[in-house]
Amino acid sequence: MKNPVEAATIFTQQVIQALPAAVYTCDADGYILSYNEAAASLWGRKPEPGKELWSGAAKMYTMDGKALPLDQSSMAIAIQEGREIQDAAFIIERPDGTRRFVLPHPKPFFNAAGKVTGAVNILADITDQKNIEGSNGHFAAIVESSDDAIISKTLESIVTSWNKSAERIFGYTAQEMIGVSITKIVPPDRLDEEPEILERLKRGERIDHFETKRLTKDGRLLDISLSISPVKNSKGVIIGASKIARDITAHKKAEQQIRESEERLRLAIESADLGSFTWNMQDNEFNFSERLADIYGYPSTNKLSYNDLLEAIDDDDRHIADRSFEKALQTSVLKYEVRIILPDTYHPVHWIRLNAKILFDDKQAPLKMQGIVLDITEQKEAEQRIKDSEERLRLAVEAAEIGLWDLDLITGLTITSPEHKKIMGHSKEQWSRLLFMQYVHPLDRSWVEHAFQTGLITGSLAYETRIIREDQSERWIRVNGTTVYDKKQNPVRMIGTVLDITDQKKANDELEKMVLARTSELLTSNSALEKSNHELEQYAYIASHDLQEPLRKIQTFANMVKEHLNDSQFTEKYFNKIYLSAKRMSTLINEVLNYSRLTKTGEQFQKTDLNKVLKDVLSDYELLIEQKQATVTYTNLPVIKGIPLQLHQLFANLISNALKFSETNPAINITATMLLPTEVAQYPKLLEDYEYVKLVFTDNGIGFEQQYAEQIFIIFQRLNNIRAYSGTGIGLALCKKIVDHHDGIITAKSAPGMGATFTIILPVNHW
């Protein structure tokens, strides 16, 4: 559904096109906006709207034949001086060289501030009237000089005289016509007129203003007015006739054009849904159309008067009509918009627009009023709906704390709303785009300018930026806008909104931080959960496999003892086996408890001297070292931040393994070096800008295949014969867990019979 303004514009264009008179409109600068077919026909061309100024005529002249510049035409004067122009006829020349007499009637339009916004011009083609006036004005002279065709003939219709005007009108010379029948110029369908004319002449009748048609030499059909008189001889006998023939073709054409014009005007008024009236003010005769009676709510059979139209006006609007009428007595133009009250209807209040023209006599007394009336109720209601909608929008904008701005791209000046000033934090009376850019954060200005230039091209503006207000506070704003273009598609205006989104930005930043924190926590929790699940799997394996083995032995040996209770030697042997199995089971349980406690420990990280840790461990294994004749060498170890008890367990397990898996004279070497930053970068798990120490434990034990270097750190994973080498398979798994707990790395390198090297990397300062 079209909006009311668009519908009104389309309706106006349709009315202009339907009018029989030539009509065109111009904007305030004089550029032609629109015109109807009648105007194009009068000009003999179709100018391009928005490209040509003042008039669509190819050339213009004053009535005395002097060239008339376009900017001095009546339309130019009406717009430039803001007044209506009447009775200023001129001549136009068409592209084909023909000329027409034109009487213009330009009328300017004004906005609410009284500024001219354009004009409409109605062009009346008065060429034919000028020709007729010329003919009438010189009628006596024409008769005297025989400018009309004067022809004489016999009663047998033979031409006896043919003057110069006859030659001019009909194209035949006197030599071609004298002695020839007059029927030579009579059309076939008019031949039956001649016998009737001759009969009347024989009776002595004079025939005046007999209208007929005659043919020219070149085949044109003319409208002719004949005055025929009988010619008598000296004895008074009628012997022939004398004819005065006048070419009235142009006159007939003008009459036909007037009739057609009046009919087109009538049809245009009816199609535009206009009511029309004519009021003869001196005798108070009032004629009106059916549509007029319908607009005022009366049957067309009613007898109405202009006073009835006034009586229908709402009391509150009556003064408008009265003042307009008083003004019309001075200007001859009557126009007003008022509410009328319709009788006996469910919707009694209607809006009407009345336009009329008052004609005056020679003494300037009002003689006649002619006018039209249009029901504009729907237009007024639509305008009210628009006003209501704009008011609701204004209230909504204020409630949403949105600032409004309107930028003139030609001057750079900007009209802003109070909320805009509040958001931008300025107190300037005048605002401009240049001033706005001074408030934009220096780091944002380049891309804000780029967004603005893009908006000029695309027609749409949208961006978010920081501003620094007069109080030096920093705020975030969101700017949206739309570009308005002129008829030549040049950007002339930009309107839009501004919204303070500082709180929203802060909330988003806080939310992002919270999401990142929660994500980090979730990743940590997932990692811990994965470790926990892995440990649960290992515990399940312990319960189902390692703990089952000594338990199964205890059950088996107990049954065997039960069957040989009387055999003391047998029972003693198997009681000893039961004891050893129970001892192994107890050892396994203690080791598992030690392994599980690493996750739940509440011990705090503290500065720990690794030299002291190593000495304490060597003291614990002093007897075993002597028994195996082992040698332990080491360099100076650093002080790091760690958990002393766990680091003691780490060193103890590594040294115990080295002693356990060496068949003769174990040799253990321990070194410590600080990692360089380039070395730290080689380990993805390590953090840059942190200090790390690398501890290397080397032995000369039995070694293992390198392919099992990862497997040895899994709980209960043994690579050797349980009978040959004691242990639970938890030691290295415990080492791995201690190093992980210290955010470090442990790796192993070995080969069968070549000993093993364990490398531990630990942070110097735990974070």
Task: Describe the fold and architecture.
The chain is of the alpha+beta class and 767 residues long. The chain has 24 helices and 29 strands. The strands form six sheets. Strands 2-1-6-5-4-3 form a six-stranded antiparallel sheet. It has a six-stranded antiparallel sheet with strand order 19-18-17-22-21-20, with helices on both faces. β10 and β11 (238-247) form a beta hairpin. α19 packs parallel to α24 (731-741). The relative contact order is 0.04. Residues 134-144, 541-546 and 716-728 have low confidence and may be disordered.
How would you summarize the topology of this molecule?
Blueprint: H1 4-18, E1 22-27, E2 32-35, H2 37-43, E3 59-61, H3 74-81, E4 90-93, E5 99-110, E6 116-125, H4 127-137, H5 139-144, E7 149-154, E8 159-162, H6 164-170, H7 174-177, H8 193-202, E9 207-215, E10 221-232, E11 238-247, H9 249-271, E12 275-280, E13 285-288, H10 290-295, H11 306-311, H12 318-331, E14 333-341, E15 349-360, E16 366-375, H13 377-399, E17 403-408, E18 413-416, H14 418-424, E19 431-432, H15 433-439, H16 445-458, E20 460-468, E21 474-485, E22 491-500, H17 502-546, H18 548-563, H19 568-600, E23 606-609, H20 610-620, H21 622-627, E24 631-634, E25 639-642, H22 644-660, E26 667-674, H23 677-680, E27 692-698, H24 731-741, E28 745-750, E29 756-763
Helix pairs in contact: 4-9, 18-19, 19-24, 20-22, 22-24
